[in-house]
Amino acid sequence: MKIVAFTQMESNGTFAQDVPLFADAIKASGADIVIVPGTSRFKRSMPAAALRAGADIDTNVTDVTVEGETVKAQRWAYRQRILATFSRTGRPWVIVTDPALFAEISAKLGVSETKEFGAGAGDTRTTCNGVQAAGGGGESTIRPDAKLLFVAGAGWTKKQADGELHLADAASSITTFLGKSGASLGSSKSLVDMPEAAQAFNFMSHMNQVGQTGSTPRHAKGLSTCCHGEEPHVVGRRFINERRAINLDANCGWAQGKADVVYVADAFEVMKKINEMM
Amino acid sequence: MSKPLNIIVCGSLVPDPLQTLEPVSTPQGPGLKNEQMLPSVLDPWAACALYEAAALAKTRAGSKVYLVALGPKAKLQQLMMTVAQKVPFELIAANGPAGGFTDAKETAEELAKLIKSIPNLDLSSTLVFGGCASASRDAGVTMPFVAEKLGINEFFAGVDEIKVADDDSFTVLERIEGGKYLSSTCKGFPAVVAWATGSLPEPPNNPQVGMMNMRGVMPALMKAPVVNVGSGTIAYEKTEVPSAKRDTVVKKDMSAEAIAQEIVEWIKG
Q1: Residue A239, domain member (yes or no)
Q2: Given pLDDT bands bounded at 50, 70 and 90, which one contains residue A138?
Q3: Domain that holds residue A235
Q4: Is the CB of A84 less than 8 angstroms away from the CB of B236?
Q5: Is B175 on the interface with A (CB under 8 A)?
Q6: Under CATH, what is the fold of the domain B6-222?
Q7: For the segment A179-236, what is each residue's pLDDT rounded down to a tens digit?
Q8: Which residues of A touch B239 (CB under 8 A)?
Q9: For the whole model, what pTM was predicted?
Q10: Which of A204, A237, B230, B252 is in Cβ range 3.0-4.6 Å of A264 for a Cys bridge?
């Protein structure tokens, strides 16, 4: 069984350039299985390339087992809610993994050859203008390599004990914590959807959204604040090993077996103290 | 004057995210317990695509939005009761399975056939929209497959913004690594755009729009062809909901200072 890994240099290519490039590479490799890290470039063009090359493709693969010539893969369906274990009869088979799992899964498969792609070339009607930051345009608050994911929920925009909104205090508390801890910022959908939050929390955007309709990042630890821990929230923490939450409601979703520790407290007060101690 | 656009949105139904899902084995392969009874919603990212399509169509007089949906007919009809009230569109439907264990290649094949069945469709003034991944299969491969099946060489994934100029060139922002956007400009149509969240809120229900849409929805559902979408070359061994229940420790009556101290030690540990 021939296993070939595809990787890319710090470069990009358009769909029109990359699909024929990748399709030819799949065919030329003679591989039974091609393993690919799920970078934005590969995720954009590899599915159509696999189709063009007559290959099968599965994305977001989280694990594989190899027994002789039989390879079984695992991936989640229904946004991290049902785990499927399966194999494919079709060959070649392109397996796309999360970039963080690429080395581990490549080692399990026993890669015999690696092909690296440079920048795309050839005819295209699309021109890349460059990369730009999301949200307020400042330093990105999404840090995939951070050990901690800090999640802010809609509770940060609610009236506090004095009957007033404290959006500026909330924004300051969150950004101070991100600066001191180096954490990556996640958000609930309800928070990023709020127009008032978009104005006050200009350091976050829909890109920060974690959960059912957002991302499912991989960090060692996760701290959730002012977020209820309902199922659409929890699926976004599927790959967070240690989970803690601060919530005023002792019966919130996090307390129902979704987090390791739930602190029943006012996140405004606790985060202020944490920022003083960090 | 800029020409009218055809904006074709591919989107179907998924179980309401608040429902508990339990996998079961069926003669056709894996499925969900009581799948036919589960309340459904329009796939969230496809819904974002639909709202963006409607907003874009408003910027060019004469433009038209199509919603191309593959799903069980009875459930599609139920879904249309709410979706049809959001924005104006013409439904093009096929009656078939829309679960998370069906093969994306077969689904894309049927979607491409439905798109090609639109009478007098001029691809040179067409944008095909969809979600960047479904909330069922969640693979992010259907829309690039549709692009390939339609022979469209411009595809953008995880898009949050599109700006179309009068000369038909357009600029998109695609989500890439590290919370950043890749900005690209394309010289013109056709193109396939797989949307992330976009920037538009869910439109409020508009009964007038609903009544107008339903005049076309019911005939579209009546003539929806039955399609066979299976699981392709996939051989499922098992589908499961892994036990994710944790022994949660709920800490009450601690001072903010004591909690802060404990969290700081945990973060640094």
Answers
A1: yes
A2: low
A3: 148-277
A4: yes
A5: yes
A6: Rossmann fold (3.40.50)
A7: 999 999 999 988 988 887 778 888 888 889 998 778 888 899 999 999 888 877 888 8
A8: 77, 82-85
A9: 0.91
A10: B252
What does the pLDDT average to over B42-61?
Answer: 97
Q: Which H/E stretch holds residue B163?
A: strand B155-164
Among A117, A133, A160, the domain boundary falls at: A117
CA distance B215 to chain A (A): 31
- Provide the 8-state DSSP code for B28: T
In a domain, A252, yes or no: yes
Domain assignment present for residue A173? The answer is yes
- Asked if the Cβ–Cβ distance from B180 to A265 is below 8 Å, we say no
Nearest Cα residue in chain A from B187: A125
Cβ–Cβ below 8 Å for A88 and B233:
yes
For chain B, positions 39-68, list CB contacts with chain A under 8 A: 44-45
**One domain, residues A82 and A190:** no
Least Cα separation, residue A111 to chain B (angstroms): 22
pLDDT (0 to 100) of residue B183: 96
Question: Nearest-CA residue of chain A relative to B16?
Answer: A232
> Which residues of chain A make contact with B148, given a CB cutoff of 8 A?
19, 47-48, 51-52
Rounded to whole angstroms, the Cα distance separating B83 from B87 reads 8
Total domains present in chain A: 2
Within 149-178 of A, beta carbons closer than 8 Å to B belong to none
Q: Show residues of chain A in contact with B43, CB under 8 Å.
A: none
CA B262 to chain centre: 42
Map tokens 């970078």 to a residue.
A39
**Percentage of chain A surpassing pLDDT 90?**
68
A101 and A62 fall within a common domain = yes
> Which of A14, A15, A62 is the best residue to mutate to test the B interface, defined by the most B CB atoms within 10 Å of its own CB?
A15
- The CATH number given to whatever domain includes residue A192 is 3.40.50.1220
Q: What is the pLDDT of residues A239-255, one digit of tens each?
A: 899 999 999 999 999 99
Dist. CA B142–CA B195, nearest whole Å? 12
Rg (C-alpha) for chain A, rounded Å, is 22
Residue A68 domain flag? yes
A122 band by pLDDT with thresholds 50, 70 and 90: confident
CA distance A166 to chain B (A): 18
A103 lies in the same domain as A56: yes
